[in-house]
Amino acid sequence: MKQLLVAVCVVTISVSAFAQDAGSGRVDRIAPLWSTQDATPIPTGQIDLRVAFQWVTAGAPANGGDSDDDFALTPTIVWGTCDNVELSIGTTAWLGDGGDMGALEDGNFDTNVGLLWRLSDQDGDMPALAVSGAMRLPTGDGSSGVDGELRLILTNDYDSGIRSHVNVFGVSINGNNDETSRYGNHVHLSDVFGGGDHDTRHFQWGVTLGMDGPLCDDGAVRWVADYVHRSSRREGRSNMNLLELGVEWDMPDAGNLGIATLIGLDRTGDTPNFGVGITYSHTLAN
Predict the structure, then answer these.
(1) Do the Cβ atoms of 274 and 56 come closer than 8 Å?
(2) Is the alpha carbon torsion for 40, 182, 263, 75 positive or negative?
(3) pLDDT tens for residues 188-237?
């Protein structure tokens, strides 16, 4: 696993060293599909409706005793409130799962509120810089407390159309939502796993490395690859290592479509085995 991390770092650094800076590629990744965020908010005044469907499977002990795969549907509203700032709000409904989700057997879940603020544009060798913050509000049945995340985001554009991203984040877990958390990518809280039992980590952290680039001449279809290394959600378990691979398709006048796969790179601790996510984004106003 250490060798894999070193390899990903080398690839990212190599691209940064040998590609020429473009600084003009303002491509917005489709949240909440990916664990890695970019530093690009949507344009001022634009409002997007994003609907994400996720399926994730995990074996013990990562599944917490859950005997079935998890299916979740997450509608999200994203609003470009002003220059370089976007707000988002969304909630997740759990679908299917054999009725063993405890408080979630009726389908409702907590609300996630997020903010992305682009602090500076790319300038020469300096990548674009942004910060994001998010809160989980206990609107779900049987949920309590408020969780929060703070994330530093670096994005670099190159003349080739490829972009690289580095995220560093910390998460504060304060609520009793262990039975209402799985590995889905929620609104700017893709890596927040709650916890109410005694061994939950109340501070969690992680680093993500991501790249994306064009698959066609006009850049309408892009490939995406992310590596995630983060702490486990429970004390005494190994850190998680995840790989995300997929594509995004910008369809003029028809919205954006993204498809992602989630692959667990180790079979210990809290790491899920495999997952698939699909997100469709439609602009309601601009």
Answers:
(1) yes
(2) negative
(3) 333 333 344 457 788 899 999 999 999 999 989 999 999 999 998 878 88
Q: Provide the token pair at 159.
A: 């003349």
Q: What is the C-alpha to C-alpha distance for residues 62 and 69, in angstroms, rounded to an integer?
A: 12
Q: Round to whole Å and give the CA distance between 37 and 184.
A: 15
Chain centroid offset of residue 250 CA = 19
Give residue-wise pLDDT tens across range 23-62: 444 578 898 899 999 999 999 999 999 999 988 886 655 5
d(Cα 197, Cα 113) in Å, to the nearest integer? 24
Region of residue 115 (left: phi > 0; alpha: psi -120 to 50; beta: else) = beta
Is residue 124 packed enough to be buried (19+ CB in 10 Å), middle (13-18) or exposed (0-12)?
Answer: exposed
**Strands in the chain per DSSP E:** 47-57, 70-82, 85-91, 93-94, 111-120, 128-137, 147-157, 163-172, 203-214, 221-230, 240-251, 255-264, 274-285
Give pTM, 2 decimals. Answer: 0.83
